[in-house]
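Entry 14. Ran structure prediction on the chain below.
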Amino acid sequence: MFIQVVKSKIHRVTVTGANLDYIGSITIDEDLMDAAGIVEGERVYIVDNNNGERFDTYVIKGERGKGDICLNGAAARKVLPGDVVIIMAYGYLTPEEAKTFKPSVVFPDTRTNKLI
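Output, structure tokens:
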């Protein structure tokens, strides 16, 4: 049996854009992706601290070092630029593996979305 656990988390980043006219996804600065261990195309869950929305989508790489966090497509209706969100990715482990697993958690500067 496998259980789903948090494997990666980008804690409290600021949404820099919401692009309704895109096919879908979240654009994340590649520096943040690398630091959290999130890969392009990976499914992520988004929690908006400003309005309580919770939803999932997939990741596309944003330009390295720009601090971009942009919700695209239908997800753009769930956030506003300036909202603070938490981005989480999950993985499957056995219950035994989960007991000692440590997720990658990133705490960027919420003003710039850059690594501290």
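The chain has one domain: 3-106. Will compare against last week's run tomorrow.
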